């Protein structure tokens, strides 16, 4: 073997040793990193799972992901949470939504998980419409600036006056020339404002009740701490 071949062999052996060292070091670092993740503790994982559940769109107390029903979260209990997150059972935990404690058990000091949410509260609003006491056909109108979900039109019982047509933003959504036989109608529309027009006919006055919901939102934090 000539000198050049010997030099190449030595270089190759050195490279193999270097690769081996780097590989071993990489494995050690990876193991340490995994060890750290495991060392984050079950507590952090339980806290994260709990926080994720609290903002999940499949949870019964949410309207959609990250949007919570104000009335529903008021009734949340530790039983609700431990049923949804069994690993929370038996651990010290502090769970609060908008600074209101849901669970306050023990003294957990680590593993704080926070999620930004909206809390929605709902108000039912209504408006009476008097159908004019005029002979023949009459159109009554109302504009609803904000609404959540359906708008309900209730036709209050009366004699000698019938509601024939309900229009939403010019579109006929209910119609019967002989008069609508159903007294309560749920009108679906995502338009804001929603403009309703009700056509009635007869020779006496009548009355409608229009009802809808509005939503008030509050920006808040969900905070979860879990300990042993």
Write the layout of secondary structure elements.
Layout: H1 3-39, H2 41-55, E1 62-64, E2 67-69, H3 70-74, H4 78-84, E3 93-97, E4 100-105, E5 113-131, E6 136-144, E7 148-155, E8 161-168, E9 171-175, E10 184-187, E11 194-202, E12 206-226
Parallel strand pairs: 2-5
Antiparallel strand pairs: 1-2, 3-4, 3-12, 5-12, 6-11, 7-10, 7-12, 8-9, 8-11
What would you say about this model in short?
This protein is of the alpha+beta class and 228 residues long.
Provide a descriptive summary of the structure in words.
Pfam families: DUF7263. InterPro entries: DUF7263. The protein folds into 3 domains: 1-39; 43-121 and 218-226, no CATH class; 124-214, Jelly Rolls. It has 228 residues and is of the alpha+beta class. The chain contains 4 helices and 12 strands. The model is unreliable at 12-38 (pLDDT under 50). The termini are far apart.
């Amino acid at each position: 073997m000539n000198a050049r071949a010997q030099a190449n062999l030595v270089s190759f052996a050195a490279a193999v040793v270097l690769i081996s060292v780097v590989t071993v070091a990489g494995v050690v670092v990876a193991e340490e990193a995994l060890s750290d993740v495991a060392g984050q503790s079950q507590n952090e994982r339980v806290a994260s799972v709990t926080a994720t559940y609290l903002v999940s769109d499949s949870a019964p107390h949410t309207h959609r992901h990250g949007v919570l029903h104000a009335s529903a979260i008021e009734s949340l209990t530790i039983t609700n949470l431990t049923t949804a997150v069994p690993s929370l059972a038996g651990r010290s935990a502090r769970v609060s939504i908008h600074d209101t404690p849901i669970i306050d058990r023990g003294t957990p000091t680590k593993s704080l998980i926070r999620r930004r949410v909206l809390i929605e509260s709902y108000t039912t609003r209504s408006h009476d419409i008097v159908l004019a006491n005029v002979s023949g056909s009459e159109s009554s109108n109302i504009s609803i600036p904000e609404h959540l979900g359906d708008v309900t039109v209730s036709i209050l019982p009366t004699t000698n006056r019938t509601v024939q047509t309900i229009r939403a933003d010019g579109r006929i959504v209910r119609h019967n020339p002989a008069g609508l036989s159903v007294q309560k109608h749920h009108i679906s529309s995502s338009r804001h404002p929603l403009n309703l027009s009700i056509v009635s006919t007869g020779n006496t006055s009548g009355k409608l009740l229009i009802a809808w919901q509005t939503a008030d939102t509050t920006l808040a934090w969900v905070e979860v701490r879990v300990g042993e």
